[in-house]
Amino acid sequence: MKRHRAIGFISLVVLLAVFSAAFSTPSPAQIAVGISVRIGPPALPVYEQPLCPGPGYLWTPGYWAWDDVDGYYWVPGTWVVGPVGLLWTPGYWGWSGGLYAWHAGYWGPHVGFYGGVNYGFGYGGVGFGGGEWRGGAFFYNTAVMRVDTVHITNVYVNKTVIVNNTSHVAFNGGEGGVVARPTAREEAYARERHQPAIAAQTQHEHMAHQDRSNFASVNHGAPRIAATARPGDFKGRGVVAAKSAGAPYHAPAMSPREARASAREVSKANNNARPSTSPSRNNAEGNNRAENKARSNRSENARPAHTENSRPSHSDNARPNRAESSHAQNESRAQNASKPKLASEPKPSRQESAPKPEKHGK
User: Which of 55, 184, 335, 356 is 20 to 30 A removed from 143 (C-alpha atoms)?
Assistant: First the structure.
């Protein structure tokens, strides 16, 4: 009996812990995850990359996060010690159905689609050219990464990294957004096994949220802490200020609370945007239309053929409406059934819609 009571008590404790985690208030670090708003983020600020603090650190670009009370705030770019063998795919804002939705970043074996946004320092909009894993060591491409080659020897130079996107636009799609869609390879990368942001990254975002100077309403797109050498280190030599805003800042016409979209609006926007944002669905609908057209052609071919001499030709302007033609034919049949048909009597339906035959002979 005591054993059963002990098991019951332990189960109760576990259930209470689960419910407590499920219904607890989200931390500020979770604010920017899975949200949709009606106003787009400011342009990405212009800044330099701080020096890599040591081997094994990977660069994570800065981005604009969202707060329901004060709007967009800047999360500085920083160097983090990520999972061995994995690369960071940055998050991005994407426009769809009239809303801007945040797509969270992740760690994975390959860098996937991040909206075509040019975050710089190897993240030029497609893929990542800042370095690569070789065994258990990360090698840095010093052509785009700022690394102290005296203390870090795992380096190489690849100057073939081409950045076609030179804008500082921080979102994909919509008016003024980056025009980019995931490639087949990036879609395959999206289906790989991923890991979410590590604890150092979420803590870094939490600290950025607490600093009022990071909010766009205060810095107007040019934060004084644009990047840091280490996560959460917002003071000292490793802090880099923005040179300038990426574009002129314009204050939003609505408050952050008004800009936040409800779950119902998000669902409606996703449903409306689904046909235009799903290549596979578009292909399927195109195939269905082609198949229906092929069936229609097969049906037309199966009908008895008519020569030009068997019926008068019809011009496009004189062609009768199908419904009107069918109605006229029914009336004609009813009239013919009530009186004998003369051999020389012309067909009313064809004389009304076609030119007189004798005109073609002159």
Answer: 184
User: 99 lies in a domain?
Assistant: yes
Tell me the three state secondary structure of residue 329.
Answer: helix
Q: Is residue 118 part of a domain?
A: yes
More confident residue, 121 or 236: 121
The residue range of the domain holding 120 is 27-260
Report helix, strand or coil for 288.
Answer: helix
Distances (CA, A) of 324 to 127, 311, 347, 348: 60, 19, 15, 13
Contact 33, 104 (CB under 8 A): yes
CA quadruple 114, 119, 125, 131: dihedral, nearest 10:
-100
User: What distance in Å separates the CA atoms of residue 100 and residue 104, rounded to the nearest whole number?
Assistant: 13
Give the relative orientation of helices 279-302 and 263-277 as an angle to the nearest 10 degrees.
50
Cβ(92)–Cβ(104) under 8 Å?
A: no
pTM score over 0.85: no
Q: Residue range 239-243: average pLDDT?
A: 97
Where does the chain show beta strands of DSSP type E? 36-37, 57-60, 63-67, 71-75, 77-81, 87-89, 92-96, 99-103, 106-108, 131-134, 137-141, 155-156, 171-172, 227-228
| 279: CB partners within 8 A, 6+ apart | 181
Within a domain: 341: no
Residue recorded with tokens 């760690």 = 107
Confidence of residue 28 (pLDDT cuts 50, 70, 90): very low
pLDDT, averaged across the chain: 77
CA dist 143 and 162 (Å) reads 11
Please give the tally of structural domains in the chain.
Answer: 1
Give pLDDT, residue 258: 95
Backbone angles phi, psi at 357, to 5 degrees: -60, -35
| DSSP code for 131 | E
**Burial of 125 by CB count in 10 Å (0-12 exposed, 13-18 middle, 19+ buried)?**
buried
- Both structure tokens of 231: 């996560």
Q: Which two tokens stand for residue 115?
A: 């909206």
Q: How far apart are CA 128 and CA 111, in angstroms?
A: 7
